[in-house]
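tl;dr need the bound structure. longer version: we got a ligand (coenzyme A) that a collaborator sent over and nobodys looked at where it sits. i said id run it. heres the input, straight from their email, havent touched it
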Amino acid sequence: MKIIGTGRAHPTKVVTNAMLEEFLDTSNEWIVERTGIKERRLISDERLEDLAAKASLLAIEDAGLKPKDIDYIICSNVVNEYITPSLSCIVQGAIGAKCACVDINVACSGFVYALDMADDRIKSGKAKNILVIAAEEPSRMVDWRDRATCVLFGDGAGAAVVTEGEGFLGSRMGAVSMTDCLHYVRCLEPTPYISKEEFSAPMYMNGRQVFKTAVMLSSRDIKALLADKGLQPEDVKYYVLHQANMRIVEAVAKQMELDLSYFPHNVEYCGNTSSASVALLLDELHRDGKLQRGDKLILSAFGAGFSTGTCLIEWTK
Ligand code: COA
């Protein structure tokens, strides 16, 4: 398959580090030094489904298609207001598409996983034009009294339209069950029969463990994928990494022995938008005219699970 269109939508509310200083025991200096984040865009009066629909319509327009041309939708999402129906189904109605749709939850790795699944579906001949969405509101998962997590996240939606072509050169997907490292637990409805103890709690994250695991697994998978394809690290124009923390991006660049200029970033004004982050950055690069036909790109993300997804694409637009 190949990517033929991208789109994105950010919430309008911009929350700076100074605004967080007003109610948290934190400082702009600490947040910038440890994460690179200066501000983040957070959902206030919007609905995630509207941001997802907006990003989708932009991607479809960029692809030169109409919603009716889309024959499959894959949406990466961890939480939104609906447990059911799926966010992909809600967006399908909002944009006026008529096709099968499915949500996946691979935490922050979801956009890369969804592209990999889209490639399989196109190769099998079961779909021609697939809309891949990554829409996330991690700001609704964290405890806003917990300075160690709430300062890190932002909300947003990114999308891509893919079709038959030769732009998906390879991928490596992985998962290691590490529930203790990063999780978010919600109680379901009570029943007369439940006898086990259950609880709801905001997101828990062991930041240091996530940091180390992310750097180790991401650089391992990127190196293995490049070796598999007979490419040198310099043959890739941009490494579009999950925007969780600028220090993680820098650490992966160091592992790859590459200059930071190969690693575009927007974490400074978006924060960590979970699986939307790679999609948002890809659209930003495309719309800013930074991508040329024939450029090789690595897209790589990691997240709760612990999940990892890395793919090599050639920009064909
Ligand atoms: N403001 C000020 N101080 C803070 C703070 C904040 N927002 N958050 C934590 N601290 C404090 C801690 O309480 C701790 O204080 P102590 O030494 O008195 O106990 C100190 O800063 C150091 O905390 P630590 O957790 O060791 O810092 P760190 O250098 O590991 O940075 C993260 C914390 C979360 C930024 C970092 O671990 C990280 O980015 N991890 C990866 C997270 C990630 O990518 N998650 C997304 C997965 S998809």
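gonna send this back to them w/ a short note. DSSP finds ten helices and 13 strands in the chain.
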